Amino acid sequence: MSDKTVLTGIKPTGTPHLGNYVGALKPLIEMAKTNKTFVFIADLHALNIIHDPKQIKQHTYEIAAILVALGLDLNNATLFRQSDIVQVSQLSTMLMNVTPKGLMNRAHSYKAALEKNEAAGADADAGVNMGLYTYPILMAADILLYGTDIVPVGADQKQHVEFARDIAGYFNHIYGETFKLPEPMIGADTGIIPGLDGRKMSKSYDNVIPLFAPESELKKKIMRIITDSKLPEEPKNPDESTIFQLYKHFANADEIADLRARFERGGLGYGDAKKILFEKINSVLSAPRMEYERLMDNTSELDKILADGAACARAVAEKTYKRVHSAMLG
Ligand code: TRP
């Protein structure tokens, strides 16, 4: 067991796919085996995009069920819903007052929205709500509330963690040492996980394979992976093949070497390669998929897990928030 506290949040804005599994969920579950870990479903962060409570609730259950079904160790890991801890909203309000507006102006996500508007000839702030603008402050509150040392995130979130660190520094400078300074941990390079069309697997490209798609859908999606037009007998470059790139994340070293050799040798058609890929992914995911489906049919079990997690998280949050309150308001 390390003595570091790890924390990460997952936004309930979509159904997790194989790219999320390989790049984020699987490494997170590994880390939670040896570190005190807080994992929460960032439903407050979803609000700037999704205004339909049913959707947020559905995705919240999906993410909780996925983590439990994949074996997140609930002895080391506290799994909870962000909005269950009121202190995070309170801390966010407090942190607003030590956060320079200029820092928010520099946030990549906000800047991206401005650039999009500019390109479309629209008003600079069109469609930008304050949830988006202050997103990094709420995220800093998430991170600082639980005494976090390490924040495993994708590269796109690195700046947000650096902002949390900056904000902690501004606070400590004014009010004295209150917060630990967190560090981002950008996952070991899993490489780009390709989607059905060979581009990075991403909801915005509509090329994803949902993590727990039913078996028949999984098969259909895999059979739809786009390939070049090489004939079965021709040698193929595994490093340029979406099929092989996905296979690498599910098979063991011997199996990977074997499939690589078959690609390079020629004689393996893409149809057969896809069947091999399907069998492999299905064998890895079928047991957790069953558990996932069971949990999604028993959401009261998920409610209980999330309530237990919230009770644990709240105990830590209350302590931190009290210190902040007394530092700022006496
Ligand atoms: N912003 C993160 C994302 O979009 C989700 C998130 C919210 C988060 N709060 C966090 C991640 C705190 C790490 C730590 O993926």
UniProtKB/TrEMBL annotation:
Belongs to the class-I aminoacyl-tRNA synthetase family. The keyword DNA-binding does not apply. The keyword Aminoacyl-tRNA synthetase applies. Pfam families: tRNA-synt_1b. GO terms for molecular function: ATP binding; tryptophan-tRNA ligase activity. Keywords: Aminoacyl-tRNA synthetase, ATP-binding, Ligase, Nucleotide-binding, Protein biosynthesis. It is an enzyme of class 6 (ligase). Its EC number is 6.1.1.2. The gene is trpS. This is Tryptophan--tRNA ligase. It comes from Candidatus Enterousia excrementavium.
